[in-house]
Write a structure and sequence with these properties.
This protein is 41% helix and 21% strand. It is built from 14 helices and 17 strands. The strands form three sheets. Strands 1, 2, 8, 9, 10, 11 and 17 form a seven-stranded mixed beta sheet that branches. Strands 6-5-13-14-15-12-16 form a seven-stranded mixed beta sheet, with helices on both faces. It is globular. About 4% of the residues have low confidence. InterPro entries: FAD/NAD-bd_sf, Squalene_epoxidase, Squalene_monox. Its main location: endoplasmic reticulum. Its cofactor is FAD.
Length: 491
């Protein structure tokens, strides 16, 4: 049968009978990417989204270079165009007013790339590859571009529908689709495979997992207008006595400010003036002087919005006929901006594992589940690095005791050493270096350097006490990172 005729029949099945090879719930970052990837492989796809209006969120606005590379592999690189996206070259970390530039490494490479030969000149290296770049943007504009590409993809039908329940086979208990509400009426959509990508507040996750996302703080967002940033085209991480503050430009005139506020923070309590009181009395004075006017104006102008900073370790998908993906399956603190990088790389890997050459029939539950076991472990090279790094860095950057403060100071001074002390950590953060051992190495190098600073910065009289106390600093480093390493080793 000619391709055009097969596509026409598949489209008829989707439109008239609501049947497809794949039903995807959630037309967000991951849902759109997977729909396009599978549709381009010839799979028939129905993509459901409860509202196709442009979303308005305060996170999901910074895409690391590793995410940009995955977007290109998916053929979606042009979705970064025509949305006033801003180039990002790295980070500016400001520690009690002192700053250090952390640029994306020019010498790091993704697995599988050819290394630059030592015999090549600097000029040759420069022409062969340029320094990696990220992008920051308005989340809603980017989502709408992805949805547009999904709608334009042959074999994909996008439907505005709110999924309400999963449909199970009465004999095998296999998931065969979802019930949904379409324009106020009940309907159903059926597929050989159902993919749930309905985000951090997933309504279906609890049916397949007993553990719940853990959130110990929230990001509160403001949109600054024409803010003067200390280092344009860089994300800014501001560290001081309180939790971290992030600043990054998301448009020609707009800059996002994200303020981390832990649960039950006294300075943000209602009797202390609430969140606005905390922003004015605590956060505003800690910001670089050039940022304060636009930040103060945003406090007075903006409605305050928040997002929980959630942690949810990944698990292997084991349900017949169903796959949980994206934030429904795995979350990390958004401090490092790694969520979209994970999502796009997951879409690349999933489309490779479930390609028609690998799994001819998606109704073959055994073959799909076997591939999902492979998916769980193969994604670890990237996702375990980003997951662990996000949680560990947040613990250091939101330091609330003496040992964590020592580690925080050690981390900043480690960056000041330059060279590989910057290239390694930021290569991990950017999704370029995908080796968990490199993360382990740099984290404990920071711990040892923090111990050295902690001891040698003391007077001779108290140095012996500091030497004993340094063991507590190392112990705290183990307490910070080991639970997250252990969680990534689970199946």
């Amino acid at each position: 049968m000619p391709i055009a005729e097969r596509r026409a029949k598949a489209e008829q099945r989707r439109s008239l009978y609501h049947e497809a090879d794949v039903v995807i719930v959630g037309a967000g970052i991951l849902g759109c990417a997977v729909a396009v990837a599978l549709g381009n492989q010839g799979r028939s796809v129905i993509l459901l989204e409860k509202s196709l209006r442009e979303p308005d969120r305060i996170v999901g606005e910074l895409l690391q270079p590793g995410g940009v590379a995955a977007l290109e592999k998916l053929g979606l690189r042009d979705c970064l165009e025509e949305i006033d996206a801003v180039k990002v070259f790295g980070y500016d970390v400001i520690y009690y007013g002192e700053e250090v530039r952390i640029s994306y490494p020019g010498n790091a490479r993704e697995d599988g790339e050819e290394p630059v030969q030592k015999s090549q000149t600097d000029e040759m290296r420069g022409t062969k590859r340029k320094r990696p770049e990220g992008r920051s943007f308005h989340h809603g504009r980017f989502i709408q571009r992805l949805r547009q590409r999904a709608m334009e993809t042959p074999n994909v039908t996008v439907v505005e529908a709110a999924a309400t329940e999963l449909v199970r086979c009465g004999f095998t208990d296999r998931i065969v689709g979802v019930e949904a509400t379409v324009s106020g009426r009940e309907d159903a959509f059926f597929g050989d495979l159902t993919i749930i990508a309905d985000g951090y507040a997933s309504k279906f996750r609890k049916e397949f997992r007993k553990d719940l996302p853990v959130a110990k703080s929230k990001f509160w967002g403001l949109e600054l207008i024409d803010a003067k940033l200390p280092m344009p085209n860089h994300g800014h991480v501001i560290l001081g006595d309180g939790a971290p503050v992030l600043l990054y430009q998301i448009g020609t005139h707009e800059t996002r400010a994200l303020i981390d506020i832990p649960q039950n923070l006294p300075s943000a309590a209602v009797e202390a003036g609430g969140v606005k009181g905390h922003l004015k009395k605590v956060v505003l004075p800690s910001l670089p002087a050039e940022v304060r006017p636009s930040f103060e104006a945003a406090i007075d102008r903006d409605r305050l919005r928040s997002m929980p900073n959630s942690w949810l370790p990944p698990t292997t998908n084991k349900s017949s006929g169903l796959i949980l993906l994206g934030d429904a399956m795995n979350m990390r603190h958004p401090l490092t901006g790694g969520g979209m990088t994970v999502a796009f790389n997951d879409a690349v890997l999933l489309s490779e594992l479930l390609s028609p050459e690998s799994v001819p029939d998606l109704a073959d539950a055994h073959a799909v589940l076997k591939k999902m076991r492979v998916f769980h472990w193969r994604r670890k090279g990237l996702t375990s690095v980003i997951n662990i790094l996000a949680q560990a860095l947040y613990s250091l950057f939101a330091a609330d005791d003496a040992q964590l403060k020592a580690l925080q100071m050690g981390c900043f001074h480690y960056f000041k050493l330059g060279g590989n002390c910057i290239d390694g950590p930021v290569g991990l953060l950017a999704g370029i270096i995908r080796r968990p051992f490199v993360l382990f190495y740099h984290f404990f190098a920071v711990a040892l350097y923090a111990m050295w600073i902690y001891v040698t910065s003391a007077s001779l009289a108290i140095m012996p006490l500091r030497l004993l106390g340094s063991a507590g600093v190392f112990w705290k480093a183990c307490v910070v990172i080991m639970p997250y390493i252990f969680s990534e080793l689970q199946s």
